[in-house]
Design brief:
Blueprint lengths: L1 H38 L2 H4 L20 H8 L3 H32 L4 H13 L3 H15 L5 H7 L1 H17 L3 H9 L4 H12 L1 H17 L2 H6 L8 H9 E2 L2 E2 L1 H21 L1 H14 L1
Antiparallel strand pairs: 1-2
Helix pairs in contact: 1-14, 3-14, 4-5, 4-7, 4-8, 4-11, 4-13, 5-8, 8-11, 8-15, 9-10, 11-15, 13-14
Length: about 290
């Protein structure tokens, strides 16, 4: 009987490791393929499927930096990265300033209507951007922000703030009220308790919405295409396909280089804060 139980545990453990290994391969393979394509020579990259001696997932010829050189010297990739980081940081700051107090208010100060309002705010996030960019275009034209990064700074918080407010409301609900009440008994005002007690406990939630907002800025294409026309004012998500997809010609090596250089830092940051990110996301999802 004991032997059968041990065998069962060994089989389950082996199945768990196999599943983890398969998922790891699935997650890492896109990065490996980007790395491979970035440094392959064109003669190694564009090979007909009838060449049976060619192995696509290794370097058949010595690696090259030609695609990286084309990306960095013949496009404005570094300018697009700077624009993206600038817009992302401003949008993250606006999202934090608006979503954190709004989420706290919905969680603590509006009673039973807080949850209903937070769901209503979340529903506005579900409106597709393809429906909103037309009225936004009119608004941006009235404000005179066409072809300006400030147009993106104005538009992006409209979909980051609602979701992050809903997320923070759920996260604040997961913090026991007793902690705040104890602070107020000690003589602190609600504002002081929120600033000195609640916010330090909500670091995971704040970090989650910061990462979410910055990621949304990084991956947006529709609004950037709608409001930005000058190449030197584009963000990475717009500038890379505009410069490296010319008609039916795809510069795959440089495209993959841009994807690799842009995604690896984000993946590293995610990996550094993954525990806090999951804690904040699950707290908001469960309690919201």
């Amino acid at each position: 009987m004991r032997r059968r139980r041990r065998l069962g545990r060994a089989v389950r453990r082996a199945a768990l490791y196999l599943a983890a290994a398969a998922f790891t391969v699935f997650a890492v393979f896109p990065f490996y393929w980007m790395f491979l394509t970035t440094f392959k020579q064109d003669r190694d990259l564009y090979v007909g499927g009838t060449v049976m001696t060619h192995i696509p997932w290794i370097f058949n010829l010595p690696p090259t930096l030609d695609h990286v050189t084309l990306l960095l010297r013949q496009t404005l990739y570094l300018v697009w990265v700077r624009n993206t980081v600038l817009v992302g940081l401003v949008v993250v700051a606006i999202t934090l300033v608006l979503a954190a107090p709004a989420g706290y208010s919905l969680a603590r100060l509006t009673g039973r209507w807080g949850e209903r309002l937070s769901i209503g705010i979340f529903l506005t996030y579900l409106v597709p951007p393809t429906l909103l960019f037309i009225p936004f275009s009119r608004l941006i034209a009235v404000l005179g922000l066409q072809n300006s990064l400030w147009a993106l700074v104005l538009v992006y918080p409209t979909f980051t703030v609602p979701f992050c407010t809903w997320l923070m409301a759920g996260f604040f609900r997961s913090i026991p009220r007793d902690i705040e009440e104890q602070g107020m008994i000690d003589g602190y005002s609600r504002l002081a308790v929120a600033g000195r007690v609640v916010l330090p406990l909500a670091v995971s939630g704040l970090l989650t919405i910061a990462i979410f907002a910055f990621t949304q800025v990084m991956q947006d294409f529709v609004y950037a295409l709608t409001f930005i026309s000058s190449v030197d004012r584009m963000t990475v998500s717009l500038g890379v396909p505009v410069a490296l997809v010319r008609g039916d010609v795809f510069y795959w090596g440089s495209l993959m280089a841009a994807c690799l250089f842009t995604s690896v830092p984000i993946a590293v940051v995610y990996n550094l804060v993954i525990d806090r990110f999951i804690a904040g996301l699950t707290a908001g999802a469960v309690k919201g």
